């Protein structure tokens, strides 16, 4: 029985940019933004992992988004990492058509960081008020409080 | 002191109005109803509907969405209604004073009668706050 | 003149309200002691009512006059019930034929007042509470009436509380027989549901539907509803004492028997969780009705 990390590495050998094992149960694998839907579909459907959450951060290189998947049987967490280099109008394919549970977290990443999710069915404000000024994304570094 | 106010000091029904707090203050408020600090001996019980409330316990920093609802809640409570701001966030916003999502403190939305600072305030501090509230009512 | 005194002072409004509020305090104090707390002082319920009288009454927009009239309906019927019951117990010869049927009718009216008031408040949560209360009334009315029929059969067919009391005085309490015990158990369950106590208080569930039926009430109408509940707490156990334990009703014994029933109510209240409304309905129309029918059968055969 190969464990899930070996399976991911075997399936996507040419697409993995970097992989980092932080501990025995925690691994970070980096991909390009275009490959995210295929990888997410593989991990969610074929490997039967649970989508835990997604996090986003504004770094000097670009906007980095992490998708965390959890294999509940063994306690391993696989994190898919991608950096969107275009900072003026960042966009990435949405994984909501594959994983319905990702709808709200992608809305939150959009409204706080400004990442446009292509193919998202319902991109509206979630936490902030509906008439929040356009183009102001609070968690970006250039936004003043 | 007339009968109405005297009866109010001996039986205060509280309604918990949480404006999206971190829930630490809510846990400490729940502590007050447990056997160790038992506030029912003062006549205080937790009610489910805001129309039965004599005191609103406000926790958390109001953001743009909860500011409107807090104002509505205050108008829905039958007067005389007291407002207690529990916790540092409700008193003066502490570290969230310059945050992007907090426009004002609680006392700019509704008039506050008692402030109970702390993060979270200990149950003893809350009981002291209630005693000060009753003293303030009696002094009226 | 004497009727007015009976209705308003003793054994009518003032007396039953005071006894009911003190009984409510006993309930709160015993519950607190079971939970290792101290509990409120003896005058707490009285202070609650006085405080409620001093708050403003808010009438929701669009609520018609029924909103304000239905609490009064409940209070008036329950005070009449307490008067009839009190007079029947003090002087059994003064009760009239058919007064047990009048009492049964009057016992349903507070529940109807609650339902009408909740439906008139124009609040969706109140309508959920009202529908639950309707289902509960449908549930417990049937076994309650069946257990009363068992008592009537045992007292050789008399429908007058006075003659039921005389029958027990001559032949022993109705509870001292198999059919009486079964009917008494059925009546205790129905009493718990009539008083809206746990495990049958789904209509006024605090945490679930934000005080359900009473959500829009404040000030004077709320005080009237609380008074109605207190007087019910006095009247229904007294009714059960008269029907089942009515051998010796001198003041000392009647107080003792009333306190025993109160203890049973409080014990059931503190040891049970709240039932869902469909579980409560299945409970009343299943085992409880079966028990009531068995007790009627046993009563017909003279047991």
Protein model, in words:
- The complex is a heterotrimer of chains A (about 140), B (about 140) and C (about 300).
- By secondary structure, chain A is of the alpha/beta class.
- Chain A has a single domain (about 5-120), classed as NADH:ubiquinone oxidoreductase Nqo5 subunit (Beta Polymerase, domain 2, 2-Layer Sandwich).
- Chain A is built from three helices and seven strands, in the order αββαββββαβ.
- Chain A has helices spanning about 5-10, 35-45, 105-115, and strands at about 20-25, 25-30, 50-60, 65-70, 75-85, 90-95, 115-120.
- In chain A, a hairpin with a 2-residue loop joins strand 1 (about 20-25) and strand 2 (about 25-30).
- The N and C termini of chain A lie far apart (about 50 Å).
- The model of chain A has no long low-confidence stretch (mean pLDDT about 90).
- Chain B is α/β, with parallel strands linked by helices and about 140 residues long.
- Chain B has one domain: 3-Layer(aba) Sandwich (Rossmann fold).
- Chain B has a five-stranded parallel sheet, with helices on both faces.
- In chain B, strand 1 (about 15-20), helix 2 and strand 2 (about 45) form a beta-alpha-beta unit.
- Chain C has about 300 residues and is mainly α.
- Chain C has one domain (about 1-300).
- Helices cover about 70% and strands about 0% of the residues of chain C.
- Chain C contains twelve helices and no strands.
- Chain C has helices at about 1-10, 15-35, 45-55, 65-90, 100-120, 125-155, 160-170, 180-195, 205-210, 220-245, 250-270, 275-300.
- The longest helix of chain C has about 30 residues, at about 125-155.
- Chain C starts with a helix and ends with a helix.
- The model of chain C has no long low-confidence stretch (mean pLDDT about 90).
- Chains in contact: A-B, B-C.
- Chains B and C meet through helix 1 of B and helix 3 and helix 9 of C.
């Amino acid at each position: 029985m190969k464990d899930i990390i070996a399976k991911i590495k075997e399936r996507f050998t040419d697409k993995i940019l970097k992989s980092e094992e932080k501990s025995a149960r925690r691994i970070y694998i980096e991909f390009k933004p275009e490959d995210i839907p295929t990888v997410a579909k593989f991990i969610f459907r074929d490997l039967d992992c649970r989508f835990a959450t997604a996090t986003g951060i504004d770094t000097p290189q670009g906007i980095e988004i992490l998708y965390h998947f959890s294999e509940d049987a063994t306690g391993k967490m696989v994190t898919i990492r991608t950096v969107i280099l275009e900072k003026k109008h960042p966009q990435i394919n949405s994984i909501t058509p594959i994983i319905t549970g990702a709808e709200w977290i992608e809305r939150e990443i959009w409204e706080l960081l400004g990442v446009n999710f292509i193919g998202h069915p319902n991109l509206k404000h979630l936490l902030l008020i509906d008439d929040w000024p356009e183009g102001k994304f609070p968690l970006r570094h250039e936004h003043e409080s | 002191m007339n009968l109405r106010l005297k009866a109010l000091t001996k039986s205060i029904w509280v309604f918990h109005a949480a404006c999206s707090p971190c829930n630490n203050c809510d846990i400490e408020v729940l502590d007050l109803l447990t056997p160790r600090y038992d506030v029912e001996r003062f006549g205080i019980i937790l009610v489910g509907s805001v129309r039965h409330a004599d005191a609103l316990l406000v926790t958390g920093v109001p953001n743009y969405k909860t500011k409107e609802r807090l104002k509505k809640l205050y108008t829905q409570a039958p007067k005389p209604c007291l407002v207690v701001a529990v916790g540092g966030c409700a008193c003066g916003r502490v570290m969230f004073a310059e945050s992007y999502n907090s426009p004002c403190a609680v006392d700019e939305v509704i008039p506050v009668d008692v402030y109970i600072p702390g993060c979270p305030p200990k149950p003893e501090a809350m009981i002291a706050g209630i005693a000060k509230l009753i003293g303030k009512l009696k002094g009226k | 003149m004497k009727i007015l005194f009976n209705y308003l002072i003793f054994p009518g409004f003032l007396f039953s309200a005071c006894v009911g509020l003190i009984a409510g305090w006993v309930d709160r104090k015993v519950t607190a002691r079971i939970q290792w707390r101290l509990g409120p002082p003896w005058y707490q319920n009285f202070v609650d009512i006085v405080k409620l009288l001093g708050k403003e009454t808010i009438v929701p927009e669009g609520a018609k006059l029924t909103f304000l009239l239905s609490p009064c309906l409940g209070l008036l019927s329950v005070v009449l019930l307490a008067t009839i019951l009190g007079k029947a117990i003090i002087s059994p010869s003064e009760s009239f034929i058919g007064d047990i049927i009048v009492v049964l009718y009057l016992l349903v009216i507070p529940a109807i007042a609650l339902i009408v008031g909740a439906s008139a408040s124009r609040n969706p949560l109140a309508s959920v509470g009202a529908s639950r209360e309707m289902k509960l009334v449908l549930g417990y009315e049937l076994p309650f009436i069946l257990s009363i029929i068992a008592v009537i059969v045992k007292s050789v067919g008399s429908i007058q509380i006075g003659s039921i009391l005389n029958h027990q005085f001559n032949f022993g309490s109705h509870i001292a027989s198999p059919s009486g015990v079964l009917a008494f158990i059925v009546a205790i369950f129905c009493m718990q549901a009539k008083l809206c106590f746990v495990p049958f208080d789904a209509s006024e569930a605090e945490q679930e539907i934000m005080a359900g039926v009473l959500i829009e009430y404040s000030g004077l109408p709320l005080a009237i509803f609380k008074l109605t509940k207190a007087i019910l707490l006095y009247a229904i156990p007294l009714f059960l004492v008269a029907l089942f334990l009515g051998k010796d009703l001198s003041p000392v014994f009647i107080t003792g028997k009333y306190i025993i029933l109160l203890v049973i109510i409080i014990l059931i209240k503190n040891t049970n969780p709240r039932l869902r409304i469909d579980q409560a309905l299945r409970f009343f129309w299943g085992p409880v009705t079966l028990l009531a029918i068995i007790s009627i059968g046993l009563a017909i055969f003279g047991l």
